[in-house]
Amino acid sequence: MADKLAILGGTPLRQRPWPAWPHVGPADVERLRQVIENRNLGGIPFPNTLHREFVERFTTSLGAPYGLLCTNGSVSISTALRALGVQAGDEVITTSLTWVATASSIVHVNAVPVLVDISDDNWCIDPQKVEEAITDRTRAIVVVHLGNQVADMDALVDIANRHNLFIVEDCAHAHYAEWRGQCVGTIGDAGSFSFETSKIMTSGEGGFLTFKDEERFHRAMSLVHMGHKDAPYDRYEGRVLGWNHRISELQAAVLLGQLDSYAELDAKRTLVAEQLLKGLSEVGGFKLLPDDARVTRRQKYELLVRFDTEAWDGLHRDKVLAALLAEGVEFEGDTFYPPMHRDPLFHVDAKEWPMIRERYGERITADSFHLPVADKVGLDEAVWIHHSLLVVEPEDVQDMLDAVQKLRDNLGELKSLT
Ligand SMILES: Cc1ncc(COP(=O)(O)O)c(C=O)c1O
Predict the structure, then answer these.
(1) What pTM value is reported for the model?
(2) Which of the ends of the chain has fewer CB neighbours closer than 10 A, N or C?
(3) Ligand 1 atom closest to residue 146's alpha carbon, by position in its atom list
C-alpha cells in the first residue's frame, strides 16, 4: 500500500516539513537589538542611518545610478509613475499574468491600465502586443520580469524609444536577474522591487526604486517623504504632494542581513534549481520554458514550468497539483496568480476612478480584455515552484521528484478522481 496516492488515503511521500522561510539568524537579532536600544526606530531623519547604508549597498550592487527605499513594491510602482510625470488619464500598458498590484498601482495614480497579452515563450509582456496597444495617450509601459524569466528588454526599449514612452521595470521577483549582463531594474527609466515576506530578499514588507535620472529620483524622494523638498534631494522644478511611505530602521536592519546572506543562498538556489529542472524534465509531465541567451542571470523567486496536459492523459493541472500537495509537495497553479484581469481583487470602478470611464465604461471587467495566452498559461499551464523549495539538500529534491514519479506511476488512479 506504500504506493497508494495520498489523495486517496495513502501515506504522503514527503512527511518531513520543508525548511522555513525567511532565513534570519542571530546577526539579525543582534542588529535589531541595537536599533531598539538606540531608540532610533523610525524613518526620520530621512533617510535614516541603516536605511542609508542599505540604499548605498543595494544600489551599487545593482549598478543603478540612484536608489531609494519605500514601504512596499506596490507604492514603489505608483511612485515611479508619478516621478516620471505620468498624469491622470494617461494610459499605461502592462501584463495580466502578474500580481494585482502591478496594475492597481497604475490606477492609484489615476492613470488608465491597458493590459496586453504575454509571449508564450517567457510568459512576460509580448512586445508586439505592446506596440499594437499604443495610442496617443500612452505614456509608459510597466514591464514585469516574472518568476525566473526576464522580459525581452531589447524589443521593449526599442518600442519605448520610438514612441517616446517611459519604462518602469517591475522587478518584485527579479532582484539581480540580468539581461545581457545588466541587472534588471537599471535598463528602463525606473526599477521597482519588493521586500515582502515571500520575496528573495525580505524585511517582512518593503520596497525599492531605482532611477536613471537624478531629477526624477529627487522627485521620488519627496513623494515618499510627505513632499519635503530638502537638500540634497531638491533638484527638481516646483513641489509635489507627497505621502508617508518611509520605511523604519527596524526594516532596514533586517534588509542589511538579507544582503549579507544573499550570495550563499543564491548559490544554493542555483544548484538546486538546475537539479530540480533537469529531474522534472526526466520524470516527465512538465516542460521547461525555452532558454534565451540574452538572459545572463536568472533569479529563482518562482521557477516556472509548463504543465504538459498530454503527458497526464488530459488531466487538468489543478488535479495533479492537488494530488502532489497531498504527497507533501507544494507546486502552485492559479492559487499563485490567476490572470489578473479575472482576479476579483482587480476591482476598478469608474465611480472611484473616473479616468477609466472613457475607455472602459463603468467598470473594468474580465471582458474588457482579450488575452488568450495569459488565459491559457494562467488557467491551465503555469506551474510555480517557490524559492523556499530551492534552499534544500539533494535528498529533498529527490523527494519532490519521487512525489511526481509516484503520481505518474498511478496515473490511472489519479484519473479516476472526480
Ligand atoms: C509582480 C509583483 N509586483 C508588485 C508586487 C507588490 O509588492 P508588495 O507586496 O511589496 O507591495 C508584488 C508582490 O507581491 C509582485 O509579485
Answers:
(1) 0.97
(2) C
(3) 1
